[in-house]
Amino acid sequence: MHRVDDQPYIPSIPGLYFSKSMAREKLFGGSVGGSKTTTLACECIALSVKWDNNRGFVGERDFDDLRRGLWNEILAWLPESSALVDGHDLYQVNRSEHWLRFWNGSEIHAIELKDEPRNVNLGWAAIDQAERVPYSSLNWMRTRLRLPHIEYRPLMLSANPEPGWVKDEFITGSTPERTGILRRNEEELVVFHKGASKLFVPAFPEDNEHLPRGYIESLYSSLPEEMIARLLRGDWDVVANAVYSMLDRSVHLKEREPDRRIVRAAIGVDYGEVHPSAVYVVGLDQFGYSWVCEGWAAPTPEQDDFDNLLSVIARLRGVYGVSKPMVRCDPMLKGWDKQHGFSLASGAPGSRKKRIETVIALLNGKVGRIGSSRVPSLYFDANGEGVVEAFEQAMVYRWEHRETDYVIERVPVRKDDDRVAAIEYAVEALQTTAEYPYMGRDEQVERETRRRRPQQPTQVGYRRN
């Protein structure tokens, strides 16, 4: 029974299918109101009760979300603890360290997934709001599922639709299967398989019988179309208010060919007192195209101290031959221009939007054409350290609408933007100092050819042919 509404847990039809599936990795959700968190929470409890001495991790990106979400939902579905006839408590909860231990020795631990979980053997793992979790954390979680006496060790996820690794891992290239099972709205439940081990079970608000009357209708009548497509219909190709909506994994994320040499580079440094810091290199190749080459982001805000940042900057300067003025720093690092010789980005109103506009121009190909086709002038090197993670962060980076008494404006969401901000600083530095910042390959080659033509004497000196 749920502690708040005193109702028994009755899984939705997609939730029951999800629970009975023995897939090693399974994703549930795809829209709001589909009982994602409740289904995941009750599965965590069921796996803990089914096998003695089982151990599982529940995680979200940070504890703020976790306390309000999956961890809180697990506690809400537990009855009041009481002593059993053998003297053991039904369960024990440590609310400060976020663990739960059942009478049979099984444990549930709640963790932040900004960093990789290490040094633990698990019988199962659950990730709520997986679209916000780093891809590296997913892969580390996979390596932890090795508790030897547990027969079934699933990795369970829930997510809302967004471009990123969740879509790539479970949606793209999957095969639909008609189950013959009717959902509450009389439509057939269709699930999706990818390979032998991955399953995606869509769940929609229509599947949740516990939603208030009129809730779904009110969302359809009040939400913007892009939010309806993503959050109610489960469209994985829509990011609400995306800043870099033009980003395309098949276009912008690719390997830099060996013949494309980085001839000039800049470093961007984002500093955070609440969120982690990041340092990224953006380089210009000999044809005038920009590349996000590699970068670093602190696992936690506590690990981005000044000495650490300076060490990372020094290493990257040495690798790419970056001069001190080409290191563009967060305005919060005031004094680093005089102390270290770096340049400071402007913190004036509108300066962030100008940096975003510069990046958008590069991604849209406004700075060069090859033939009659417009091509991007900024790419993410898929082989660069930390570049894939930066691309994923840029894919989901978004605007929020902020309203005052005088104006309604769009501002970038200043959370989980450390890598993106560092790239924007580097792009700004590179584009304001590069010799040919707005030339595509054809224009670059033509200008270089003109420079190399032999000089001819004239009456007043020399001219070029």
Give structural notes:
This protein is of the alpha/beta class. It has 2 domains: about 15-230, P-loop containing nucleotide triphosphate hydrolases (Rossmann fold), CATH 3.40.50.300; about 250-450, Nucleotidyltransferase, domain 5 (2-Layer Sandwich). It is built from 15 helices and 23 strands. β17 (about 370) and β18 (about 375) form a beta hairpin. It is globular, with a radius of gyration of 26 Å. The model is unreliable at about 370-375, about 435-450 and about 455-465 (pLDDT under 50).
> Could you say how many structural domains there are in total?
2
CATH superfamily label of the largest domain:
P-loop containing nucleotide triphosphate hydrolases
For this structure, the CATH topology of the largest domain is Rossmann fold
Structural class: alpha/beta
What gap, in angstroms, lies between the N and C termini? 87 Å
Strand order of the largest sheet: 3-4-5-2-6-7-1-10-9-8
Shape: globular
Proportion of strand residues? 15-25%
In DSSP terms (H or I, runs of 4 or more residues), the helix count works out at 15
The major sheet is characterized as: 10 strands, mixed
Radius of gyration over C-alpha positions, nearest whole angstrom = 26 Å
CATH class of the largest domain, named Alpha Beta
Q: Architecture of the largest domain, CATH level 2? A: 3-Layer(aba) Sandwich
The portion of residues assigned to helices is: 25-40%
How many E strands? 23
What's the mean pLDDT score? Answer: 84
> Stretches where pLDDT falls below 50 for ≥5 residues?
368-373, 435-449, 455-465
